[in-house]
TrEMBL record:
Signal peptide: none annotated. Its EC number is 2.7.2.4. It comes from the Bacteria. It comes from Mucilaginibacter calamicampi. The keyword Zinc does not apply. This is aspartate kinase. PROSITE patterns: ACT. Belongs to the aspartokinase family. GO terms for molecular function: aspartate kinase activity.
Length: 457
């Protein structure tokens, strides 16, 4: 059975478990092969190459983009990669070869970046030059981690193939998919295990289209090309019936089976089992996706398939986010005035703002967006056309399920929230009933998730 498997950065940093629990687990001989592992950089490496994904602390790229001296930072990254090499020497990594690879790669990158700085000084095409610099820097982390894992596996006598999709010294103008097809055209998957860089170079620029989290896109594009029996994402936790960090690990269980629609609903409130843009090609190709926990290899994890519908009535996941904002538009002339909603949606469209929830009454429309997406220009435009426009930070809590609709579910959910003294600011469910949404006060998010998990989890 051919599988294409993605290993995220947090899991990669537990390299010993990656080798024991993922690559070698329950497999010997030929069973080891016919698998492609798409690996992310070791945890934190891309942060120091670009910028910290959460704190935005500048990495090499941000220094370069700010016309500051980036060379010390780039050198520090090289030193960090060598420290990681030393950390993985006990696993069988040949330190001399691995450090030499770091030196060569970093020197090549520096040569490119010196050229970029020279070009930036000219003031021509800055955007394109900065994007190229971002692509080059991003690629370094995955080139390193894929090299390290494939080298260790070779040292163990396994026929591991280091598949360099980063193409640092490959000047061919190929799209990502073209590069993938070209790279796999000479590989006999039955006789090797492929370790592919999570960064893939392409004329479209993976950073321009997807930016951080790009490994999942490379993983998806490889699966599109190879059409495996199963695509697998290895994470450091199970996709659970609720956030264990909120309700307690003892009050959740792994989601055994769900579908791609539910995965999209999860992503809509920020819980990405897989990025929707990476999931769609898999869903459309009918490829099954499995989310596995790196630290529980014996557990089958969560299987996500296109047409799955639970054979019993149940809520599959309780999730949500407290990072939302409710925009309420009121106007006494709205009732019966065809086109009010169109004008509102046009304003949202004009400012490129999508929403996660919308309800209407005779004279008002309430729309929930991500709080970070709010633009004052949108509010200004709406206020020119409607009597009153208000905004309020809120939390959204959701019940997700492929087959959860039954009399009393809404009542039990609302009763659970009421029992916790949580006021429902707004509630809604679309016809498919795969997602029942409650809008509550921002500071009642955690209490609402706990209350719903107790009531219907
Ligand atoms: N239904 C859920 N199942 C599992 N984890 C969840 C769920 N909902 C929220 N979480 C939280 O999401 C965290 C992982 O979020 P993710 O965005 O994948 O990683 P990170 O934000 O650390 O990069 C988990 O550690 C967990 O606390
Ligand atoms: N290492 C890259 C790519 C990636 O997808 O990483 P992860 O799988 O850890 O999200 C980043 O941090 O953006």
């Amino acid at each position: 059975m051919l599988t294409v498997e993605k290993i995220g950065g947090t899991s990669m940093s537990a390299l010993h478990q990656v080798i024991d629990n993922i690559v070698l687990y329950n497999k010997t001989g030929a069973e080891l092969y016919n698998r492609v592992f798409v690996v992310s950089a070791f945890s934190g490496v891309t942060n120091i190459l670009l910028e910290n994904k959460k704190t935005k602390a500048p990495g090499v790229y941000q220094k370069l983009a700010a016309h500051e001296d980036f060379r010390a930072e780039l050198n520090a990254v090289g030193q960090h990669l060598k420290e990681l090499n030393k950390q993985y020497e006990p696993l069988g990594l040949n330190l001399v070869q691995a450090d030499a690879m770091v030196d060569t790669t970093m020197q090549t990158a520096l040569n490119y970046l010196e050229g970029a700085v020279t070009m930036l000084a000219s003031g021509y095409l800055n955007e394109g030059i900065l994007l190229a610099a971002r692509e080059i820097l991003a690629s370094l982390g995955e080139t390193h981690s894929a090299y390290v894992l494939s080298s260790i596996l070779k040292q163990k006598g396994i026929n591991a193939h280091f598949l360099d999709l980063a193409g640092l010294t490959d000047a061919r103008a190929l799209t990502i998919s073209e590069r993938i097809k070209d790279a796999f055209s000479t590989i006999d998957l039955n006789s090797c295990v492929v370790i592919a860089t999570g960064y893939a170079k392409g004329t479209e620029g993976i950073m321009r289209e997807f930016d951080r989290g790009y490994s999942e896109v490379t993983f998806s594009k490889i699966a599109e090309v190879l059409k495996p029996q199963e695509a697998i994402i290895h994470k450091e936790y199970h996709l659970s019936t609720a956030d264990p960090g909120l309700v307690g690990i003892e009050n959740v269980r792994p989601v055994g089976h769900t579908n791609y629609d539910i995965a999209d609903q999860l992503a809509d409130v920020g819980m990405e089992a897989i990025h929707p843009k990476a999931a769609k090609p898999l869903e459309m190709a009918g490829i099954h996706l499995r989310i596995k926990n790196t630290f529980e290899p014996e557990h089958p994890g969560t299987l996500i398939t296109k047409g799955y519908v639970s054979n019993i009535k149940r809520v599959e996941v309780i999730t949500g986010t407290d990072k939302q904002l409710m925009v309420d538009i009121y106007d006494p002339l709205m009732t019966g005035n065809v086109g009010s909603d169109l004008r509102i949606m046009q304003a949202f469209y004009n400012h490129g703002i999508s929403y996660t929830y919308k309800v209407t009454s005779a004279n008002s429309i309430s729309i929930v967006i991500w709080e970070n997406d709010l633009k004052q220009e949108l509010i200004d435009e709406l206020q020119q056309n409607f009597e009153r426009v208000t905004t309020e930070p809120v939390a959204m809590v959701c019940l997700l399920g492929s087959n959860m609709d039954q009399p009393g579910l809404l009542a039990k959910s609302a009763a659970g929230l009421a029992k916790a003294d949580i006021n429902i600011l707004s509630a809604g469910v679309a016809k498919g009933k795969v997602n029942i949404q409650f809008v509550v006060a921002k500071d009642q998010f955690k209490a609402a998730i706990i209350a719903l998990n107790q009531a219907v989890g």
